[in-house]
């Protein structure tokens, strides 16, 4: 692609020749930066909101898992206590380990 073709392609894409675009960019760079920063900050805000929701869901899932495990441990302890009562063993502080 020669210089003329590149210039025509640039003008077709941006609506002005490269020199005009350079001058326009010098005049409007602040507006472009403000728009870019605004859109970036909105994306970051959305990302952090989504991250907060995901963390909240993870915490809830972990909490539910811990609650289930705790209930299973309580049931096992009740079962062991019931078995001990059926055997007629007394709780005398001996844990069953011979000294």
Could you walk me through the main structural features you see in this protein, from its secondary elements to its overall organization?
The structure is a single chain. By secondary structure, this protein is mainly α. Helices cover 83% and strands 0% of the residues. The protein contains two helices and no strands. It has helices at 3-14, 18-87. The longest helix has 70 residues, at 18-87. It is rod-shaped and about 100 Å long. The N and C termini lie far apart (94 Å). 0% of the residues are buried. The mean pLDDT is 88.
Identify the overall geometry.
rod-shaped
**Would you identify the regions where 5 or more consecutive residues have pLDDT less than 50?**
none
Question: In percent terms, what proportion of residues is strand?
Answer: under 5%
User: Whole-number average pLDDT?
Assistant: 88
Q: Gap between N and C termini, in Å?
A: 94 Å
Radius of gyration: 36 Å
Main beta-sheet annotation: none
Count of alpha and pi helical runs: 2
**Topology as H/E string?**
HH
**Number of strand segments:** 0
Helix-residue proportion:
over 70%
Helix/strand-derived category reads mainly alpha
């Amino acid at each position: 692609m020669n210089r003329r073709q590149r210039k025509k392609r640039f003008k077709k894409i941006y609506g002005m020749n490269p020199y005009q675009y350079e001058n326009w960019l010098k005049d409007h760079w602040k507006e472009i930066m403000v728009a870019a920063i605004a859109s970036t900050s909105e994306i970051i805000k959305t990302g952090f909101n989504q991250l907060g929701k995901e963390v909240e869901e993870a915490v809830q899932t972990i909490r539910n898992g811990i609650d289930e495990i705790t209930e299973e441990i309580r049931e096992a302890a009740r079962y062991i206590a019931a078995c001990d009562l059926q055997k007629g063993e007394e709780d005398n502080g001996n844990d069953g380990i011979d000294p």
